[in-house]
Structures are given as C-alpha cells and as structure tokens.
Amino acid sequence: MTKLLMPYLTGGVVPGWTAYLRAFEDAGADLIEVGLPFSDPTVDGPTIQEASDAALARGATPASILADLAADRVGIPLVASTYANLALRPGFGEALTAAGVTGLIVPDLPLDELDQLTAPGIAVSLLASPAIPDDRLAEIGRRSQGFVYAVSIMGTTGERDRLAPSAVTLAARVKQVTDLPVLIGFGISSPDQAAEAAEVADGVIVGAAVMRRILDGASPSDLGAFIHSLRTALMV
Fold it and tell me: Which of 14, 128, 169, 235 has the fewest other C-beta atoms within 10 Å?
C-alpha cells in the first residue's frame, strides 16, 4: 500500500516559489502544505522560522501568497498552515477557497476555540501530540477533517537524525480513535525515517528537511529528486 506524502513549503520564501509546488507534484507528492509566514511562529523550529523571516523580508503576505497560488494552480490538494491570529480573521476561509486551497492547519488554535474558525468547505486538520490525554485525543479524532496530524515529539519542527519512539506510540493511539488518515510530522528528515514512520501511520509530513534545502539554494529539480526519494521509500 502506498502511503501519503505531504511536503511543506513556506509561501513566498524565494522568487518564483510556486515552481517548487509543481516539482513536488511531479515527484509524487499526494498533497502539499503551504505555510503562510507569521512573525511569531511558536511551533516552528529554526529552519522554518528562517524561511518565514526570508518570506516576510521579501514582502510576502497571506494575500500575496494566496494570489500566487490562484495564478499558478497545481493538480494535487493544497493545505494551508498558519496561526490563529491570521486564521480567525473574517473572510480568511473564503480567501483560501478562492486560491484553490482545500485544507487548513492551525497549530496554536485550542480545540475549545475551534468553533471560532469560519472556513466553510475547508477541511481543518487537527494536531495530536504525544502527551495528549485519551479523552482529548478522542475529541480530536472526532472533530478533525481530512487527516490527523500526529506530532512526533514534544517540541518544535526541525530535522532529526532518527524517528522519535513517541511517534510510533502516538500514531497507534490516534488510529484507535479515527478512520481518517494519520500523518506523522515534526522531524521526518530522510527516506529511511519516512519509511519507518509509514510502518505505523498512513503517511508523513516533511517540512524542515525540505526548507533547509531551499534555503541552501536547491532548485526545484533538486527538491524534486529529494521528494522522489521520499516517495520511493513510502511505496510499501
């Protein structure tokens, strides 16, 4: 069974950034997470913070990123990720839809405040962490849409040299409370780690490892080769 692959890309990080979206699609990504840069990204580690800073320094805004997406469509689902400060603004859901975005991740939006988010037609995927109590996890399983984002560690995003054991335990717990796909993120940095995660989950989210390459100057074709290596590892 082929597992799902969702690479992450910070919107507006470099000129012509949407070329990476097409490269991801061509390399076999199933969906793409597009980060809308935010000045205080509380769950993001140094790499994605650096990418956000670079995008903001270039003048990227949520509106400009969504305009780029609307003008340069890809054929696989796009999932926006941002923080509650932006996501709770009036009209945000409609703006996502106009840009062709079909999913949303808001990592700092408490479950108790989910009803404040107005995004008709947008699948809001919720995060579950290793320390989450069983009753809270069950509610996330009920209320999540699209997929459940299983956070592999207690910490921020970033590359790591091995898959955290907590990821395995968490994925098994999440699969007990939902029929939605369970995707593991935070720290998936290599094809081997992706394959290991896919043994217990329905797919992986790869962010910092992608953005580190882009920040170091990798071209869309370079990133396509990396995404293809992940895709191959997930063909289990």
Answer: 235
